[in-house]
Amino acid sequence: MSQPKKNYYEILEISSDATEEEITRAYRKLAVKWHPDKHKGEEKKKIAEEKFKEISEANSVLSDPEKRSKYDEFGLCDGEQPDFSGPQGFPDLSEIFGNMAGMGGMGGFPFMGGMGGMGGMGGMGGIPGMGGMGGIPGMGGMGGMGGMGGNVQRNNKPTQEFKVKLRVNELYEGCEKTIEIPIDDICVDCNGTGSKNKKKKVCPDCKGKGIRVIMRQLGPGMISQQQISCGTCQQKCWVSEGNCVGCQGKCTKPNKLTKKINIKKNFDYQTKMCLRDSGNFDPNIEKKADIYIVFKVTDLEDYNLKISNEYDLVLDYTIHLWDALSGHTVYVGTHPSGKKYSFKLGEIIKDGDVRFGKGLGLPNEDGHPGKFIIKFNYKYPDTILDHDKLKEFLRTKEENKGIVKSEYSKEKLFNPDLEKDDNNNFKGKNRNNGNMDGDGDDDDNGNGQPGVQCAQS
Ligand SMILES: [Zn+2]
Ligand SMILES: [Zn+2]
Q1: I need a surface site. Which of 53, 158, 202, 400 has the fewest CB within 10 A?
Q2: Other C-beta atoms within 10 Å of 445: how many?
Q3: What does the alpha-carbon distance between residue 62 and residue 418 come to, in Å, rounded to a whole number?
Q4: How far apart are CA 421 and CA 369, in angstroms?
Q5: Centroid of ligand 2 to alpha carbon of 197 (angstroms)
């Protein structure tokens, strides 16, 4: 890198033969002095920020023996100016003072000390100028942060969902579909490291622990400490070094996963198919997501149907008064399974009556398809009719809106047995109401959801 040479020694106000300890001490002293959080007013804050960046950069080079010797020899500024513009902002003082994860209790800074007993301060050894920290009386019992300095484990397997649209008759008939799932695939140029040299670098900010301890001043002499996840490495404990050209350091590249899926006859639309370890690559945990394929039935409206209770198909049928009162055969149309069907009512149908046919709803995994439910609604004349007009109205066979009713034909019609819904089971019980979007996160609710079909990719 050929940045203009900066005098890091001057920046840290030390001599060029300073020991490592002197460098650290100088850095800490200046970092405390110039920490942007300590400077109020926009102008002053800006100056402090610049100073702070400079100090951090100088420290990042001089505290690394390899970089320091390069710098001494060639005057190379190997230190990238740290970017503090991210959500984490400037590092807290606790980070500047190294890993204090073992520290218990709350301590005040020396210049604020003298406030009583010691909070447990284990793990503070070797921090220059920090001796004599006083705990606040009564706060000593707040230890218990110790022992959390270990690496952070993040093993949650990522999952993603992919929706596949099915026509309702494809559930009955079965089909084969080729799907293309867009995924963020592992970048082959850098093996998912994001680094130019395909290697990972231990995160310099958390020293590979994934967490950092931050300290906050609560009031005079009161400092609280808190463990936060390391924003620099997103808890993965390493960072990329020099952006990979192929992925610009993202560790992934957009790709497409092509899969053939087989929809069996009488397919349960609530089935979830799982493609293990096939989805988006998460560089933070170096795992590929499981893809859950979920299904959405798209064309129920074409049949005037809605879904109720997951597998029941509901038809709102506007019945002409003549048909309702005469026990006429009602020709309803085409069932999504492809069969044409009609109903011989054989009795008076009242407005709002419900009939249902068992086994004619949507197929499901346990082999007991839902019901086909017909809700009858009367069609009334728009205006008051005199006797003659009423007769005419009753005898007029009007087409029911939206329902195919042309088949008064010789075609063989399917006549399901209809049962009466005496208990009003199906009224106002439209739980799903055609919404089959399913959020995909309900696979553990155990309420009769069909199992997940899994396939290794
Ligand atoms: Zn880190
Ligand atoms: Zn890459």
Answers
A1: 202
A2: 8
A3: 86
A4: 18
A5: 10
Structure tokens at 252: 């992934």
What percent of the chain clears pLDDT 70, i.e. is strictly above it?
A: 67
Query: What gap in Å lies between CA 54 and CA 64, rounded to an integer?
Result: 16
How far, in Å, from the CA of 150 to the mean position of ligand 1? Answer: 12
Q: How far apart are CA 232 and CA 91, in angstroms?
A: 10
Q: Residue 318 pairs with which residues in a beta bridge?
A: 377
List strand residue ranges (DSSP E) for 187-280, in order: 200-202, 211-219, 222-229, 238-240, 252-263, 272-276
* 147 Cα–ligand 1 center, Å: 18
Q: How many residues does the chain have?
A: 457
CA of 186 to the centre of ligand 2 (A): 8
Q: Is 74 helix (H, G, I), strand (E, B) or coil?
A: helix
> Tens of pLDDT along 207-248?
988 888 888 888 888 888 888 888 888 888 889 999 999 999
The DSSP call for residue 200 is: E
Least confident of 48-52, 90-94, 179-183: 90-94
CA of residue 198 to ligand 2 center, whole Å: 8
Distances (CA, A) of 346 to 323, 349, 405, 410, 420: 10, 9, 19, 21, 12
Of residues 346, 371, 375, 367, the one with CA closest to residue 357: 371
CB neighbour list of residue 422: distance below 8 Å, 6 or more residues apart? none
Six token digits for residue 172: 């009955």
The encoded tokens of residue 176 equal 């084969």
Asked if 62 and 71 touch (Cβ cutoff 8 Å), the reply is yes
Q: For residues 204 and 232, is the Cβ–Cβ distance under 8 A?
A: yes
The CA distance from 180 to 170, in Å, is 19
Q: Which residues 6+ apart lie within 8 Å of 231 measured at CB?
A: 86, 87, 88, 205
